[in-house]
Prior knowledge:
Elements lengths: L1 H16 L7 H6 L7 H7 L1 H44 L16 E13 L5 E11 L3 E12 L5 E14 L2 E13 L4 E14 L3 E10 L4 E9 L1 E2 L4 E12 L11 E13 L5 E12 L1 H9 L5 E12 L1
Antiparallel strand pairs: 1-2, 1-13, 2-3, 3-4, 4-5, 5-6, 6-7, 7-8, 8-10, 9-10, 10-11, 11-12, 12-13
Amino acid sequence: MKGKQISICLNIILKIIGITGTLTLANILAYPLSSYGESAKELDNFYPTLESLESTDWQFSQSHDRSDRNSDRNSDRNSDRNSNHHSDHHSGEHDWPEPIHDNHTYSLILLEQLEYRANEGEDSLNWDAVSWVGGDYERLWIKTEGEVGLDSGNGEAELQLLYGQLITPFFDGQVGLAYQQLYGDTSKGRAFGVVGVQGMLPYVIETDAAIFISHKGDISAKLSAEQQLLLSQRLILEPKLETHLAIQDVEEFGVGSGINDLELGLRLRYEINRGFAPYTGINWTRKFGKTADFAEEEGEAVDNFAVVVGLRLMF
């Protein structure tokens, strides 16, 4: 077994060094190594050559590793120099790029409701709109809502002019002025100072709450909440709740103390695009307490159910 291993090793060594001779693998296997004579002596001379080759390869490998390490160190030094030079170059205030101007002014006009109401009594035209101009933190708001009877022309309208300031990530604080006008057989109006908040509660419930103080010191409040439920990308169901409260009786305007009324609505709209959406739905209102008493004295209904058809417009 040892003779076979020696013969294989010698055959490989002969091929590597490139020496050709009379020795063959068959001769190596057939005779002992000592019988080769001068050829064996020549093989003895191969060992220094192999040792020299192995030493040369090892020295080359070590030299190559040292070259790689020196190259890496030089590369790191050059990188540090370039980094320091880049940092020094931009350390001056005049070298910084221009800041991003993200404090832009935007605007929106949303006609949330422009609808015909088929009431139990006189049919009416109703509207509810909001508009604002400003940025992410400060805005100027304009709000209006009202109704007018299609037969008698009697109705009421309200206009608010408000300054809004972002007070939390989801709510604006608002302060400003409002004016309410009753028109028809007898026209009268009153002005208010307004303080309120508008924003979004969890579950994407849009909320608007405000306190009104009239020029005569009468205090009232209004709260509305609505949610947009996406049945599809274009079909949206919107429930809405709105209520009014008052501290004092104001019989001239048909307002009693306590909870004045409650209004519930459900509208289904189809958005042809974001700016144009026809809708249909139902609306129910109910008056309470002295407000209901004042309405009965005037011959008005205490509660009302209506089918509505309208448009939602956004600019």
